[in-house]
Design goal:
Largest sheet: 5 strands, parallel
Number of helices: 14
CATH topology of the largest domain: Argininosuccinate synthetase, chain A, domain 2
CATH class of the largest domain: Alpha Beta
Order of helices and strands: EHEHHEHHEHEHEEEEEHEEHHHEEHHH
């Protein structure tokens, strides 16, 4: 272990990484540099994080603001693909991991580190996501995953470990939920959620209002989309990050964006998680509404195909791959026509697109009307149907001959 001289640790200030700092120093005899990614988890989580890192034994701490880049370079491109993991999960944790890993590598290069470390457990997806990114960006750096090495096995043992070394930590044995937050979402695991038969208690949710307690009057919000990207909310143009912040504030009070799912982890087990994604749920509904107008049947079918593939790519931590570049290129081609305005109704946890328009709309009232029209000759449908069903007709005729 002595070959490691300096390691950059992805540090959050929570229980796990607070224990990892002294553990690395004791077991590897190395200098530990803490790296904190500001991905919009909130001021409360970041308050005093540098002091905590130093108090835990880190030689220095870098806090890197990644919020704008996360939304514009990772979340928005993913949204253009329409990716939703297993039909429900909007990939909040997954989308943040590659930018955090990239920034961690950049800090490691800056300080001359020869190793990287993270606090992911051996049961989760994040160990794969981080280390796959490290492999693509810094294959020369050693990766240390303490949860796969140390003998500490529980929250209580970590607390004891810190107490024995007089290292302060705000965590306690009574904090039963594991949470991950960024500007896109908050995830909740653990506690009563480990039994899928248990309903989430009120203590689980921390961001959105309970739909039952949301305002009794619906709110309508206008979203402007340009080439598959939200650029304005209620007529005000913002940066991608500010668009998301604005929609988060509006949607959270209406209880929009709560999901409770059992998902398939990459490592093979199923896990139950509750997610809150208020603004993101509104954005996804707006983009889907524009797609309904501008994409023809074959294009929508193709998008459904690569959306599914991209959801697994992001979930599995394969961001820095040629496949990612290929799918994003396809998504951009279809997004070029995805421009328009959508008005969405937010009410008691639901979001519904109630108005939509686009200069590139393929919807024509002249053709679609149930009233009289002079642009569509319904007699033409007979020939189309005969050709469309020709193979079925031939197969049936063959069966008749054989019988």
């Amino acid at each position: 272990m002595s070959e490691v001289k300096k390691v950059v640790l992805a540090y959050s200030g929570g229980l796990d990484t607070s224990a990892i700092v002294p553990w690395l120093k004791e077991n590897y005899g190395c200098e530990v540099v803490a790296f904190v990614a500001d991905v919009g988890q909130g001021e409360e989580e970041l308050a005093g994080v540098e002091e905590k890192a130093i108090a835990s034994g880190a030689s220095e701490c870098y806090v890197v603001d990644l919020k704008e880049e996360l939304v514009s370079e990772y979340i928005y491109p993913t949204l253009q693909t329409g990716a939703i993991y297993e039909g429900t999960y909007l990939l909040g944790t997954s989308m943040a991991r590659p930018i955090i890993a990239k920034a961690q590598v950049e800090v490691a290069r800056k300080v001359g580190a020869d190793a990287l470390s993270h606090g992911c457990t051996g049961k989760g997806n994040d160990q794969v996501r981080f280390e796959s990114c490290f492999s693509a960006l810094a294959p020369d750096l050693k990766v240390i995953a303490p949860w796969r090495e140390w003998t500490l096995s529980s929250r209580e043992s970590l607390l004891d470990y810190l107490a024995q070394r007089d290292i302060p930590c705000a965590a306690s044995a009574t904090k039963i939920y594991s949470r991950d937050a960024n500007i896109w979402h908050i995830s909740h695991e653990g506690g009563e959620l480990e039994n899928p038969w248990n309903q989430p208690s009120d203590q689980v949710w921390t961001w959105t209002a309970a739909p039952e307690q949301a305002p009794d009057k619906p709110e309508f919000v206008s979203v402007m989309v340009e080439k598959g990207k939200v650029v304005a909310v209620n007529g005000e143009r913002y940066s991608p990050y500010q668009c998301l912040v604005t929609l988060n504030d509006i949607a959270a009070k209406h209880g929009v964006g709560r999901v409770d799912i059992v998902e398939n982890r990459l490592v093979g087990m199923k896990s139950r998680g509750c997610y809150e994604t208020p603004g993101g749920t509104v954005i996804m509904a707006a983009l889907q509404a524009i797609d309904e107008l501008v994409l023809d049947k074959s294009s929508r079918k193709w998008k459904e195909t690569y959306a599914s593939e991209f959801s697994h790519l992001v979930y599995d931590g394969r961001w820095f791959t040629p496949l990612k570049d290929s799918i994003l290129a396809a998504a951009q081609a279809l997004a070029d026509c995805a421009t328009g305005e959508v008005v969405l109704k937010l009410y008691k946890g639901q979001v519904v697109a109630v108005q939509k328009q686009s200069v590139n709309s393929l919807y024509s009232e002249d053709f679609a009307t149930f009233g009289e029209d002079d642009v569509y000759d319904q007699s033409h449908a007979e020939g189309f149907i005969r050709l469309f069903s020709l193979s079925s007709r031939i197969a049936a005729l063959n069966k008749q001959k054989q019988s």
